[in-house]
Every structure is written in C-alpha cells, then in structure tokens.
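Lab notebook: predicted structure, single chain.

Context: the supervisor wants predicted structures on file for every construct in the current expression panel, including those that have not yet been purified. This is the next one on the list. No modifications to the sequence; it matches the entry in the shared construct table.
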Amino acid sequence: MTSDDEKSPKIVSDENWKAQARQEKEKLSDQSDQSDQSESAPDDSDQVQPADEQQPVNIPPANFMTLVNSYMIQTYYCLGKFADPEKGEKPKVDLDLAKHHIDMLSVLEEKTKGNLTEQEEKALSVALNETRMMYVQAAQS
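Prediction complete. Output recorded below exactly as produced.
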C-alpha cells in the first residue's frame, strides 16, 4: 500500500517566479507613474484622431444644444441638404427618416418642458420650426 504522501500531489516551489513577478510588478508601477505624469500635462482631450486620418477632429461638448444640433443636422441630411462627403454622391432624400428625427426633437421638447434655459428652449423651438418647414417643402417637391 502507498502512503498518503505518495497520493497527494507534490508542490514544487520555484523561487525564480517570485522574483520575476516582483520585477514585472515594479515595471508596471513605473509605467503607471509615467502615464500619470503625462495625464497631468495639458492635452487636447476633445480631439480624436481617426485611424485613416492623422489630423485631429474637434468634438463638440456633450450638452443639450449639441443634441438639438445633431438631430437638426441629421434631419437636413435626410432632406437632401447635404451630400455624403465620403461617397461624393448627390444628396438623397429619406422623408421617413427625416420625420423620425423631427419626431425625436418633438419628444425632446415634450420631455424637457419646464427644465430648459430660455436659450435652450428657443433653440429647440427654432430647430423644430425649421426642420418642419423643410420637411413640408421636401414632401411637396
């Protein structure tokens, strides 16, 4: 019969892995310290460099006005006011999608009623009026 010592697995301790792990930990700590220092330096955090272009692109602030402008521009695009800059094709009209974007602006107006500054309320109202008029003109032609 075999003893319990022979049945249980043997644990082999290699001291080299401990030293290697310690060195890797120190190296990562040094890299982290260097990245912390570079983060504290002023940077252009609002600029993104697309993979295919190396020139920075300014990203607008994330606020209510940007949201309204975003829906407005999407509506203009769907109403054929802009061509696709990447494809260089003629502007296309998609009335259903334009109506969807206008409806989203309407939802914003309804859900934010009483919670907007005077300037935000006016900008939303102007955006809705302009996009609705453009939609009617596009639908008639």
